[in-house]
Amino acid sequence: MKITFLGTGTSQGIPVIGCECAICKSEDSKDQRLRTSIMIESDATCVVIDSGPDFRQQMLREKVKRVDAILFTHSHKDHIAGLDDIRAFNYFLDKPMDVFATEDVQQVIRSEYFYAFDLNNTYPGIPKFRLHTIERELFTIGDISFIPIEVFHHKLPVLGFRFHDFTYITDAKHISEVEKEKIRGSRWLVLNALRKEKHISHFSLEEAVTLAKEIGAEESYFTHISHQLGLHKMVSKSLPPNISLAFDGLKVYC
Asked: pLDDT tens digits for 210-244?
């Protein structure tokens, strides 16, 4: 199985529009971050988690020809804003895109992409979705099984996902002990680490390191990174040996 980090940036990405800080001006490609998303590829199935505003660019960069389904962690714009671009897959694969989300997230998708759900709209260029409700219990897409993990983004419930020995969590500030039990035993762990200073709805770097050590995965990666965290090269030097900053285009083989 191959996991590709399509994007590892926070809602503004890096560089931030108009910013002149050293991180935003860095020429190191690892400091240039699109909005957070990953792609999971098994022998038979390709799944993307979150389709943010950079979805089209990410698909083109990775030369993706087929996506079987899109999973959503939550409904914030930096995670759903690229959903209209599944139209290309509708056309080339000649089928609706399977979309997996909670009922709350589906409600936002129906509102944001109202034209796709208008039964009177026969225009051939609209995106076509097939919605599936995530009920917080194990579900399967193709040959990949997913365990939803509920975390909290301040007061907003957000879903992380464990598949095989890989756990992916973004936009989290709190994870209950019950949900942590679903994570334990993962060989690979991904957590959000927004910046060094504490934040109301995201793990700080220190909080992410502490949780990664508690879970004890063989390899941990941090994502959803803002320009306030610092230069990739410098921050990486401060991390424990088995913890790394993810970067756009990183591929992990499980």
From this structure: 999 999 999 999 999 999 999 999 999 999 999 99
114, HSE (Cβ side, Cα atoms, 13 Å) = 2
Check: CB of residue 201 under 8 Å from CB of residue 151: no
Q: Which residues contact 183 (CB under 8 A, 6 or more apart)?
A: 149, 160, 162, 167, 169, 175, 189, 215
CB proximity list for 234: less than 8 A, separation 6 or greater: none
Of 121, 172, 132, the closest CA to residue 149 belongs to: 172
Answer yes or no: is pLDDT of 119 > 90: no
Strands of the chain (E only): list them. Answer: 2-7, 37-41, 46-49, 69-71, 97-101, 129-133, 139-141, 144-153, 156-163, 166-168, 188-192, 219-223, 243-245, 251-253
β partners of residue 130? 98
Contact 3, 254 (CB under 8 A): yes
Pairing mode of beta strands 97-101, 129-133: parallel
> From the centroid of its chain, how far is CA 102?
15
For the chain, what are the domain ranges?
2-253
CATH for the stretch 2-253: 3.60.15.10
Q: List the beta bridge partners of residue 48.
A: 39, 70
Secondary structure class of 70 (helix, strand, coil): strand
